[in-house]
Amino acid sequence: MDEMVLQVQKWLNVSYSFRPNWGGQVPENGRTGWSTMYGLTRALQLEIGIANPVNSFGPATLAACPTLRKGDNNHVDSIIVMILQGAMWCKGYSPGGLTGTFGPGTEDGVKQMQSDAGLTPNGIVTPRVFQAMLNMDAYRLVNNGDENIRLIQRNLNGNYYNTTAIQPADGHYSRDTNTALIYGLQLEANVSGANGHFGLGTRAATPTIRIGDSRTNFVQLIQYCLYVNNYNPGNFGGRFDSTMENQVKEFQSFHKLPSDGVVNLNTWMSLLVSTGNPDVKGSGIDTSYTITPARAQTLVNDGRQIVGRYLTGSFALSSAELNTIYGSGLRVFPIYQRFADHAEWFSYNQGIIDARDAIQAATTLQFSYNTIIYFAIDFDVSLQQINNLIIPYFTGVHEEIDRYHAMGVSYRIGVYGPRYACTVLSERGLTTSSFVSGMSTGFFGNKGHVLPEDWAFNQVKEHSIGSGAGLLDIDNLIVSGRDQGVSSKDNSVTTPNIGDYVSENAPFMNKLNELFNFAYERSDGDNRIASILTLNYLRSENYNSTVWIPIAGAIDSNFVEEAEQRFGKPSDFPILYDPITGTDMDFMHMSATLNAILFQKTFTIGDLASKLSDFAGWLGDLITVIDDAKRAFEQGRFNSLYDAAYYYIGHTSDSAGTFPLEDLLGDMDAINIGRALDLNDTNANVYEEMNTYYRLGFRRRFKQAAHNRFEYNREEIYNEAYRLLTTLNPLISTPRTLFRQAFNVDSFSNEEAENVAKAFRDVCSEWLDKED
């Protein structure tokens, strides 16, 4: 804790908390953070006449902000000086006190900040300097920063800060540094309306620079660009010599540009933008379109050589399409993407499932072993998400691919995503090739990051080619040649045996598919409604009493009656078999639980939805199993209530037990399938998700459920069970009482609930330890 920062925070709260528009108190913790900087910014805005302050130091604040200097206190409100001094303490530049007087100490601190940032250290606080004092950017080398990059950042600030604002000078190449470099080019080229984006006006004004060019400022900018892209030009003095020319050639070669050492528009854009010049035609494309013979001819006529296509989903490759592609002399590389456009999709368990699904599809299509499969990250992923979600996901992919390697099924792992995510995964040894989503130029992981060393494809522009039957939308790909793709089917490739699912459960899944299609026709083509109707029917025989209405919704009796006329009762369905345990699943129980999850997600807000749906699954089963355990313990069959509960939770198919193994498995499966349906788009449906899950995901059902419902924390399994069994919150206690009364369960004490919750945790932990 910093005592002076704490003093600043207390002063802010005392001085401004009574002002209705200020926006609330800042934490008084003695630690600099955005909340304190925002509080100081809003305070400044109030003092300079902005009636409705905001957290950002924008154009209006910049225009109204005064210039401060030592001794110039006659016409400057001392409160504004105190705001400056508060910002300086938080920024790490001592003003000598929190006095409201701009004296020598304050001037010295300002000079130090200006010097660190690369400005002339004159001690004068212009609006741009005040703006820099009120943010969290560092102007000193931090976290193994590069001194040369810091020198570049300081020089950019010194030359252009009146336009660019004062950017970080911390020794790390970032989106801010990238923007400042573009600004520098625009200002040197006299681009009207310079904005830090490489648009059409910038393209038109960009000069061509070659060895011996005397335009020092342009040469210096190229030197900066080379260095931040990991090519050392040999000097930053603005001399375009032979050393620099060689570095330009190496950069051009890596980016698949003509290696002539001349910095033209294409080279400038490759230095500064993740697409490079998007109008440069590459030899590859990716597309969601099926490649018909006419479209294949369009690609050949356009000079394309390799095509990226999807292994699964709505835009999936077929065997016939591959024949068309190969027969046209084109090559193909496979992309795996189900629902990878949001962070919640990614987890270790999902990586395992997706790897297995990808292998199943790749072998079915007879992609030769050693083919690289590109697993997608199709959103603007943050550093935190890379660490917490993306790395675990690709760890799961990697482990599962390795497991199949041991069986002779040897595919390699690629990644589609922003530059930085690709680089991190490659450096960790989780991927072997990168397909860069370069046309997302503003992504965190693209702007201010270099092209990965292992890049195979760079996606730079979306457009249409061809006409008539040959028309198709494509993404233009620059191709490095590191991945040659595949040019023919490999007849030696066979689909690996992933268990007894296909032979045992095909009858159930085939009938489920017919049922869903029947529901789809009666829901006007709405997948979500069709999924609900399908589950209504499957639960209708055993889970249709009034107690289920507030939990899972009312059953559509008209649909159920129609379905029974065509399919019979749900009990007439084929068996759904779990090859892991050798158990015949209670699909009616699982369907009731899944129905409740979808119903609550639709009609209940926030975290309460999952808690209420739990009554149809594991929570309801725990409530009823309390009676089983109490009765057995009272009869002297067990030494403790815990032992009895442990026995009855998922360890028995005893007809007297209300929480048998098939119910426990179904509860976990419903959580996992429900998460997939909840996260997926409007094309998702219960048949596809159940079919995929029971083909792949069920092998790690407890690990998935622990992640999806219990924060992947074994103690949270106990905590949540105990909370929901004992809470006095009427939103939970009322349906709990109704549920208990409906199933004739006696009231139970907190101690009894504690024993049952512990048993539930330990049974789940036992399964977690078993799953590979």
Automatic annotation (TrEMBL):
Top-rank taxon, per record = Bacteria
Q: Where is the Peptidoglycan binding-like domain?
A: 81-133, 217-270
SUPFAM superfamilies from the UniProt entry: (Trans)glycosidases (SSF51445), PGBD-like (SSF47090)
Which ranges carry the Rv2525c-like glycoside hydrolase-like domain? 297-476
Extract the InterPro entries matched here: GH, Peptidoglycan-bd-like, PGBD-like_sf, PGBDSf, Rv2525c-like_Glyco_Hydro-like
Designated name of the protein: DUF1906 domain-containing protein
